[in-house]
Amino acid sequence: MFSYLGRSKSSDVETMSQCSSVHHHDRAYSSHSGDDGSFGTIPKHASSYGLPTASPLVGLPEISHLGWGHWFTLRDLEMATHHFSATNIIGEGGYGVVYKGLLVNGTEVAVKRLVNNMGQAEKEFRVEVEAIGHVRHKNLVRLLGYCIEGVHRMLVYEYVNNGNLEQWIHGAMRHHGTLTWEARIKVLLGTAKALAYLHESIEPKVVHRDIKSSNILIDTDFNAKVSDFGLAKLLDSGESHITTRVMGTFGYVAPEYANSGLLNEKSDIYSFGVLLLEAITARDPVDYSRPANEVNLVEWLKVMVGTRRAEEVVDSNLEVKPTTRTLKRALLVALRCIDPDPEKRPKMSQVVRMLDADEVPNREDRRNRKSRTTSMEFESVKDTGSSVGDEISIIRVEDTDSIAPSSSQPSCSIAGASLVRPVESVKVFLICLPSMNRDRTGSWGMIGMLRRGEKPMYRKSSDIKLIFIHGGT
């Protein structure tokens, strides 16, 4: 039996009011995620805000309690869903059908009835679900229990209201208003914290396998609740898994996973990068209604950034656009997440730090940033002297804390960024490709000082990845 060993290392996100999260927002609706983004919406019931919140399992038969949740009988769930009535369906997709249910103690739940039993025998299903049942994080939809009876396999989740990110960006919730930039980042930051917890804070770690906008539920305070992790894959530390059946949704699936079935947490990180681009642009990952060169969101975005048209990709429905600095930061984080080489993608804990860096700056940061330029541009230097024609990126950084949190983590530098600030001299570092070292961690080191107006000198070698210029003496 797997055991739950870790606690969340993430800090809570500050609560945002609904009025600051949505332009022209009037009332909230409830939903639960299915698998293909098609969902019903149900009017939100009267709030019990301010009253003590009881456990959703209080009042259920004690004999059915597990160590972490509840074992439901088929009859329990038939009664809760009016015998799985079509009127109770709130979502459906490749994994199964989701029903809204009402337990005998009055708790609203979402019941996912799996199709094809996911090819799992009872023992395998029970082991995996019970391991995941111990997972607790404020940004994860809580798995309340399950049902195994005959051929039936069902998962019971808490019921989260206020729609999901897909509905707010593309679908049923848009007529309530446009989700603000701040609300989008709050949802994405919560999602990143949930994934960092699953990947790095518990053992065995959990790979979600199906990160997408319709699986990011949103509560009434616009906190993210990642759903469907009950169908995730458990992996021991450092382990990858080869599967013949690729799970996930077209457009979000990492290329190495789609091509070879190689699964590890880097697959989720790629999907998160696509999710971040989707939130920035309000475009579907794959949209065949668009011109041929815009069908694939990832490829189109790379072209737009590469031709210095980054500010044109922002959702045109946003009434208040993000600053250039904030937009470029979000885009650079996304581009790191969707790197074709899985080894170059950041950990989710790094993504959390990068996304959170500008959200709640301390007073000293605010004072310092008033005198700093916020221009950012992408540049690269072609090493025409090298036999392999390497492209060497030059980074000039005015605020090293925002891009490289500490000198011990140069890998947090974002290739291609240039924050220009006139200084008398700068420190120059050389960062080499991960392939140089057996542990694939790369190498770096200070190679000298550079005076204003001087150009950096570097050796011509295929090992050079980028030159990092520290914006201070």
Neighbour order of strands in the largest sheet = 4-8-9-7-6-5
Task: Count up the domains.
Answer: 3
At the fourth level of CATH, the homologous superfamily of the largest domain is: Transferase(Phosphotransferase) domain 1
Shape, per Cα inertia axes: globular
Number of strands: 23
> What portion of the residues fall into strands of 2 or more residues?
15-25%
Structural class comes to: alpha+beta
Pfam families: Pkinase (PF00069)
Organism: Chenopodium quinoa
Main location: membrane
Enzyme class: transferase
Give the SSE layout.
Blueprint (H helix, E strand, L loop, with lengths): L17 H4 E2 L5 E2 L11 E2 L26 E2 L2 H7 L8 E4 L3 E7 L5 E7 L7 H12 L9 E7 L2 E7 L6 H5 L8 E2 L1 H20 L4 E3 L8 E3 L5 E3 L6 E3 L5 E2 L12 H6 L1 E2 L1 H17 L15 H10 L17 H14 L10 H9 L6 H8 L6 E2 L1 E3 L8 E6 L3 H4 L13 E2 L6 E8 L10 E9 L12 E7 L3
Parallel strand pairs: 4-8, 19-23
Antiparallel strand pairs: 1-10, 2-3, 5-6, 6-7, 7-9, 8-9, 11-14, 12-13, 15-16, 17-20, 18-19, 21-22, 21-23
Helix pairs in contact: 5-7, 5-10, 7-9
